[in-house]
Amino acid sequence: MSIELLPQFIRDNYEVHEWKHACAILKEDFPNEWEDILSVLSDFRLHKSWITNPGGRKSKVSEFIDKYLYDRGWVEKEFQTQVVVDQNTMDTPTHKVDCFRNRVALEIEWNNKDSFYDRDLNNFRLLFDLRAISVGVIITRCDNLQEIFNELGRGASYGASTTHMSKLLPRIEGGSGAGCPLLVFGISKSLYVENE
Questions:
Q1: By the 8 A CB rule, do 124 and 98 touch?
Q2: Start-to-end CA span in the chain (Å)
Q3: What backbone phi and psi angles, to 5 degrees, belong to 105?
Q4: CATH topology assigned to domain 2-193
C-alpha cells in the first residue's frame, strides 16, 4: 500500500486507510493538493475547548480544516449535473463537497450522524464516475477519542450513532465508494491538547 508515502508524523497520529492507490495518485498527479492535505494534517491539533464548548452550525474541527484549505485555494463545491433521456433533461445536483480543488474532493465528518458517510461515499462514487473527481478524502475521528469525550463529560454528544472510523470502514469495505480511490484519516488521541 502507498500509505508509506505519508510522512511518519501522519502515520503515527492518524488512523489511515487507503483504497485504489489514492496516495500514489495524489502524490504523483495532484502534488499541490497532496501537500495541502499533508500540511493541514501536520498542523492540526484537537484542543480541549473544541470539545468542551458547544459548537454552533459547524464544529471548530471543521472550521480549522476548512479555513486552512480555503486559504490555499480550495472551495466548497456543488456540482451541477444533469441526466438526459430522449431529449428530456433533468437536473441532478450533487451534495456540496466541503473542500474541493483540482479534481480532489475532501469531506470532514467530525460529529454528524453516521448516515452522512453514505451521502459522502455516494457523492464520491457519482463524481468519480462522471470524471469530475479523481480522489475522495475523508477526515473523521478515531474510536479511541471516545475515552477523552467521556472524561470531559461530553460522551453523550459523541455517541455510537455519530461519525467515527468503525462506522465508516464497513461501508467502504462493502463497496460504497465503488471505483473511486479513497483516502481516509482518523484523528487520534495523540493529537489532543489540554490547552484551551
A1: no
A2: 37
A3: -110, 135
A4: Restriction Endonuclease (3.40.91)
Residues ≥6 apart with Cβ < 8 Å to 75: 99, 100, 101
The confidence score (pLDDT) of residue 55 equals 66
Per-residue pLDDT, averaged over 128-146, amounts to 96
Q: Which residues contact 91 (CB under 8 A, 6 or more apart)?
A: 80, 81, 82
181 or 160: which carries more pLDDT confidence? 181
Give the distance from CA 69 to its chain's centroid: 12
Distance CA 115, CA 191 (A): 26
Q: Which of 56-60, 87-91, 170-174, 176-180 comes out lowest in average pLDDT? A: 56-60
Strand pairing class (46-47; 75-77): unpaired
Which residue, chain included where needed, has cell 480541549?
A: 48
Domain ranges in the chain?
2-193
- The percentage of the chain sitting over the pLDDT mark of 90, rounded to a whole number, equals 81
Round to whole Å and give the CA distance between 96 and 90: 18
- Work out the burial of residue 12: count CB atoms within 10 Å of its CB; fewer than 13 is exposed, 13-18 middle, 19 or more buried: exposed
